[in-house]
Write a structure and sequence with these properties.
Length: about 270
């Protein structure tokens, strides 16, 4: 992909992420004013006797979802402004990662449109989309670190489409339990422990590859630290259902995003 084509893709994804943020904000506000938002299906997760910051709160889940959306929007903007003149082909995988973060936010549809009470196509679509996001996020981060090594002879487009097709395939065959919802508004699904383990393997492998690559090129390990903080923060935000998790996830994701992208920009400026 040429530099011009990549910048156009970045701009398109930035507009898309802003449109999603504005649309979801408008829909949530309209549904709240209409009194149509329902958390009834999540009452069973309420906890008593715990400190306020550690109690289950559907509002904290909604806030975490909006934090994810803002993270994606700001990341696309930073990438467009700071990397528009750099030959950073591995950013294609980072675009895919951010797209996965946006798709993860589709779970907000469940309480906003109160679709959990009946079996519906929308509920199934939300469940499948959440599984796809669960799969594509770690795979795309792994692809980001692997494709960053210029010494590797890799067909980026082929690797990119393979990750997408693999995630789509498993998202379509993994069973959903539509009678049960998770605290973070996700539809329950099968093989959760297996998927979680594979995610952790991808994250650890990604961080390890980045550390080795930085050491080989004699770079500072700031990108590795920022990358790790970003992964931890977003993992917390995607799974949290408390205000404590929201705050911790926001801090880790924000600092990680700034540290990783700033140092990555310095590295590409040095190379270019």
């Amino acid at each position: 992909m040429t530099l011009k084509s990549r910048n156009r893709l970045n701009f398109t994804l930035l507009i898309f992420s802003i449109a999603v943020l504005v649309t979801i904000t408008a829909i949530v506000l309209i549904q709240i004013l209409r009194g149509s938002v329902s958390f009834e299906e999540f009452d069973l997760f309420k906890t008593e006797g715990k400190p306020f910051m550690l109690q289950y709160s559907p509002i904290s889940v909604i806030a975490a979802i909006f934090t994810e959306l803002l993270f994606a929007v700001l990341s696309f903007y930073i990438l467009l402004r700071a990397f528009s003149k750099t030959q950073a082909q591995n950013l294609l995988f980072f675009y895919l990662f951010l797209t996965g973060v946006i798709l993860d936010c589709v779970r907000i549809v469940i309480p906003v449109f109160d679709v959990a009470k009946t079996y519906s196509s929308l509920l199934i679509a939300c469940g499948n989309t959440s599984i796809f996001a669960n799969l594509i996020i770690p795979l795309s981060l792994l692809g980001t670190t692997i494709s960053a090594d210029e010494d590797q002879k890799i067909n980026l487009e082929q690797l990119l489409f393979s990750a997408i097709l693999l995630s789509l395939f498993f998202a379509s065959i993994i069973p959903l339990n539509t009678s049960r919802l998770l605290p973070n508004f996700c539809v329950d699904f099968g093989f959760k422990k297996t998927i979680f383990s594979l995610n952790m393997i991808c994250y650890i492998a990604s961080i390890t590859i980045l550390i080795i690559s930085n050491a080989k090129k004699k770079y500072k390990q700031l990108t590795s630290i920022g990358f790790s903080l970003m992964i931890i923060g977003l993992t917390i935000l995607r799974g949290t259902s408390t205000y404590a998790g929201l705050v911790v996830g926001f801090i880790f994701a924000s600092f990680g995003q700034i540290m990783y992208l700033r140092e990555l920009h310095h590295q590409y400026l040095w190379n270019d």
